[in-house]
Amino acid sequence: MQSVVKAASVGQLAKASCLGVPANTALPAAAVAGPAKTYKKDGVLTSGSMSRLLPGKEGQMRIMSGISVGTQVRSIHAGNVDVPDFSYYRRSATKDPTSDNKSSIENRNAFSYVMAGTLGVSGAYTAKALVNQFVSSWSASQDVLALAKIEIKLADIPEGKNMTFKWRGKPLFIRHRTAEEIERERAIDASTLRDPQTDEDRVQQAEWLVILGVCTHLGCVPIANAGEFGGYYCPCHGSHYDASGRIRKGPAPLNLEVPVHEFMDEGTLIVG
């Protein structure tokens, strides 16, 4: 085809026509009406040289040229092509050529319904598995879940002392308060505080204070048993907290956070 286009572009072919001829038959008179021109000029392909480029048997004429018309002759197959048999793949109800479609519509509909239902259930199950996998990828890992709760033996903390534990990557303060600290903190008027909270609202048992050791100003870790109010002191920016973890002086806007915790009967504290 490229050769034909190249030759036509330089004016070697004024017109061209194609003629299909069955195999093993005589060529029509128009196709053999004269010898082929085989001249070549300036290296340009001629009709004779293009004839050798067309598909066909050796010695078979594939292109003829008249005075002003070039005729292309190509053989086609007729009568010797095997038609494949697809009976094996057809349903039994449709193999009879004399039956109408109404006699097999129930069988065909049943097959269609079964296939549609099977594909629907499979698709729904696959979609559910993908969604579950995607959502579960957002869940916390096993090592994080293992630290979701912490169990603390309260008997190991002496009275008047503060112990620090690591919980969910944060410092956890457990303070065993004395009777003097409890009395002092409960005597404070909550309405005068920056973040008003009574001591009773922040503890479940009066002698035990459970708070997170994270300053509410910029997230620093306060120092226990320090500051002007005998509770906690953040040296980074000078925030002072009392023995109930309430902000009393400095830039911190809120009290120290009290996490979810529960006291067990056997003297065990569970945080989380």
Tell me about this structure.
- By secondary structure, the protein is an alpha+beta fold.
- It folds into two domains: 75 residues, no CATH class; 122 residues, 3-layer Sandwich (Rieske Iron-sulfur Protein).
- The chain is 24% helix and 22% strand.
- The protein contains six helices and 13 strands.
- Strands 8-9-10-11 form a four-stranded antiparallel β-sheet, with no helix packed on it. The protein has a three-stranded mixed β-sheet with strand order 1-3-2.
- Strand 12 and strand 13 form a beta hairpin.
- It is rod-shaped, with a radius of gyration of 48 Å.
- The two termini are 80 Å apart.
- The relative contact order is 0.08.
- The N terminus is likely disordered.
Number of helices: 6
Structural class, from helix and strand content?
alpha+beta
Main sheet: strands, sense, barrel: 4 strands, antiparallel
* Mean pLDDT across every amino acid position: 76
Order of helices and strands: HEHEEHHEEEHHEEEEEEE
- What is the CATH superfamily label of the largest domain? Rieske [2Fe-2S] iron-sulphur domain
User: How many domains make up the 3D coordinates?
Assistant: 2
Q: Identify the CATH class of the largest domain.
A: Mainly Beta
How many strands? 13
Examine the coordinates and then state which fold CATH places here, giving the name of the CATH topology of the largest domain.
Answer: Rieske Iron-sulfur Protein
Q: What's the gyration radius in Å?
A: 48 Å
Q: Based on the coordinates given, report the CATH architecture of the largest domain.
A: 3-layer Sandwich
- Low-confidence parts, pLDDT < 50 over ≥5 residues? 1-16, 32-42
